[in-house]
Amino acid sequence: MAQSPNSLVLFARGVIARLACWPALRLAVDQSWGGPDSSSKQTWISSVIVDEFDKPEDSELPDEFYIEDMLLQIMADEFDTILEDGSAEAVGKDIVKLWSDLKDGRGEGAVKVWEEKARSSSSRTVLSQEVKDPDSEQDSTSDEDEGSESDGVPQLLSPSMHKSHEEPEVDSEGFTLVKGKTRHR
């Protein structure tokens, strides 16, 4: 159902706010997984979704599954990210519900709720967990590859494991004693 320009603008505001609350997209944009223009891709995604709903009245409107699939495809294509957390499903449901609320005259309230959530979530940091696909690893007979299970992942050292920085030793005449590095074998 084609909507008036005002209701489309309201829907676009709601979609932008809902996507701003989506942790997966926020992380992808914050970490520039889509390259230097990652933030403009977020706006582009919003416009693609709004365009799907701005169709002639005789056209079939997208459902939550279509929006979910579209979001998953965009995340894979534009941000090289495969989502398996189910968050795209929730976003798809929310966007379709937002459209339904808009048609029922409750759109402005729903948009304000999402805009408030977007404002409050913009200050929170999103954490990620990288999961390696076991099917993508290649078998190798090299001795180098038989190391620890976490090759390539930097390990954090606890503060007690850091070498303590020794104060320079100054003799009675004011000269600083230079110590050579000792090699531990």
Automatic annotation (TrEMBL):
<dbReference type="Pfam" id="PF10273">
    <property type="entry name" value="WGG"/>
</dbReference>
<feature type="region of interest" description="Disordered">
    <location>
        <begin position="121"/>
        <end position="185"/>
    </location>
</feature>
<feature type="signal peptide">
    <location>
        <begin position="1"/>
        <end position="17"/>
    </location>
</feature>
<dbReference type="GO" id="GO:0006364">
    <property type="term" value="P:rRNA processing"/>
</dbReference>
<dbReference type="InterPro" id="IPR019398">
    <property type="entry name" value="Pre-rRNA_process_TSR2"/>
</dbReference>
<feature type="compositionally biased region" description="Acidic residues">
    <location>
        <begin position="136"/>
        <end position="149"/>
    </location>
</feature>
<protein>
    <submittedName>
        <fullName>Pre-rrna-processing tsr2</fullName>
    </submittedName>
</protein>
<keyword id="KW-0732">Signal</keyword>
<keyword id="KW-0698">rRNA processing</keyword>
<comment type="similarity">
    <text>Belongs to the TSR2 family.</text>
</comment>
